[in-house]
Amino acid sequence: MTFRAAFAILVFGILVGCSRPAATPVGDIVPANFDDADPVAFQGQRPDRFAVHGIDVARFQQRLNWRQARANGVNFAFIKATEGGDLLDPMFAQHWQGAGEAGVARGAYHFYYFCTRPEDQARWFIRNVPRTPGALPPVLDMEWNPFSPTCAHRRPSAAVVQDEMGRFLKIIRRHYGQEPIIYTTPRFYAENNLSQFTGHEFWLRTTAKTPRETFPGQSWRFWQYSATGLINGIDGKVDLNVFSGTPPDWERWLKLRAAP
Question: How far apart are CA 169 and CA 80, in angstroms?
């Protein structure tokens, strides 16, 4: 091999390496460099007081540079996987792979339907979401669905809601070996007495007030505080979230709750 050829190969290797920087390792905290198209002046329990920020995504985020988003403070992401018993989010596989390659701590969530048996929904989630080492706990998204043509008006009693939640969670827990997290909204939480659904970690949506104001007395692990986030690497608006603890809390929680 001539000197010129060897030099060309060396330069090519350097350029290739520089064009795809190494991902920030999972668990390393990058400070949030986010904007918000419609910021709220939260009183007391402000999101910027928390160190660990992240996002949740679904099919609406079709153009997403995960490495760039990670470099701007996306430390974790909850990714929509399934709805009901037969709907798979078309962006799930791409988001799951992209987040993993970028060093984003990732978890999958299921949007619950009240017109399908919980057992069928759990099996559908399991069919589509891999058991990935290091994954965050699976999430059960519990909220009323006003847009479904078949389930929009199904409003079971609180007792039925909690029974179906328990049946779904039991199957998911057994399969993934992790206690799932429950995501919910203020209205759904209040109407179904979820303050009495104990023994679970909650991910709470409240974009106008703090969790302390909206869910008094309820502990939480994640807080979805905005639906209008703006982050370099993501086209359009995205949901913003924070983790409830300090950097050492995040490290301990990942060791305890991430999939083995």
Answer: 17
How many residues would you count in the chain?
260
Q: First and final CA of the chain: distance in angstroms? A: 47
Q: How many CB atoms sit inside 10 A of residue 5's CB?
A: 9
Tokens standing for residue 132: 């990935």
Tokens of 162: 């909690």
pTM given for the model: 0.90
Instruction: Output the six-digit token pair for 176.
Output: 């993934």
**What's the rounded Cα separation, in Å, for the pair 154 and 115?**
7
Residue 19: predicted pLDDT: 47
Question: Which of the residues 36, 143, 191, 201 is marked catalytic?
Answer: 143
**Is 153 within 8 Å of 196 (Cβ atoms)?**
no
Instruction: For the domain covering 3-257, report its CATH number.
Output: 3.20.20.80
Q: For the chain, give the mean pLDDT.
A: 91
Residue 13 has pLDDT above 70, yes or no: no
- For residue 56, indicate whether it is catalytic: yes
The catalytic position among 56, 83, 89, 239 is 56
Helices 158-176 and 118-128 pack at an angle, to 10 degrees, of 30
Using DSSP's 3-state secondary structure scheme, residue 112 falls into coil
Query: Domain limits of the chain?
Result: 3-257
Q: What's the pLDDT tens digit per position in 101-125?
A: 999 999 999 999 999 999 999 999 9
